[in-house]
Amino acid sequence: MPNNSQGPRTSVIMPAYNAADLLERAVRSVMAQTEPDFELLVVDDHSTDGTLALARRLEKEFDNLTVIAMPVNSGVSAARNAGLDAARGSWISFIDSDDQYLPTFLETMHGATAPDVDIVVGGRIVVQPDGTEKLSASGALGEFDGAEACRLAMSDQLTPFPWDKLIRRDLFEKVRFAEGAARFEDMATNIVLHSLSRRVRSISTPVYRYYIMAGSLTWGRVPTVADTTVALNHLDQHLDQPFKEGKYRAAYACMRTLVFLLVAQSAIARGSGTAAAAVTVAECRHDISWDMLVRTLTVHKVIGAGAALLKLAPAVYSYLYLRHIRAAYGVGKPQTPSPQAPAAAPPANPGTGSGID
Length: 357
Hints:
The chain is α/β, with parallel strands linked by helices.
């Protein structure tokens, strides 16, 4: 790897927890980059399955791989922040331990930069549980100033993920990932990063292979609205007030509406028919105010329509979402709608990647 006293061009950060089955595939996809000036930081979040031992073995094989071992299990935000603390590159990118970079990830993303472009958003290949693949990209393509990129991100027109982006390292001096957040820490941080940037470029070229695991749709406890508190508070604390009012107010409402829709989706997928799911969906319906819904409709009709369906016909909402995940992923079992059924929603905008987290 080309090196200099100022460090590599890019620091690639990979958080990993109990990822022994897939970690090596992810690591080797980074090491196969056509752009060689990078370091890879694998942050093991106190795994219990041999992930750390495997990472240490790979560290001996590759000179530009560094393993960071978290002393206790602290969550993905803390792992990413530990990687940021150790990063030496001028640019930052991320990869999840169960996904892959395409060989041209860094070459393509750097090719889309410019002196005043602080973030590049790339396209991706989505791999379904049955192995079929489809191309996907953000709804908004082109180059935008940071304020407009922030509005587009809140309107679900730029993806909420960290792993399909190349980000100038300086932006992380002003914001990090929300530690302790149960969900949406990536969405919250990305919105703030866009607001801090000078310009953002969004391209459709696929650079990342994202794997949808059927088990992730139904695994785990039923979420609650309280799971969103840390991330949304983090966003409110770091996002300047002008981005929540005036011409940005509708986009800000859309973002919050989408969060509650996604929580409802997870509740129905993970606990359909249970009391816990019913409670969560009722909270989501309550927290999407009519004012939020109306404002959302002005910037994103699909999300707004989903919110309206959730509030007015939760049983239908639940039934449609169960049908969707069964057809798309082969999981879940649609049930006949009933007035008492808990609710969930069809994906707010599958084209930009919104869905179960």
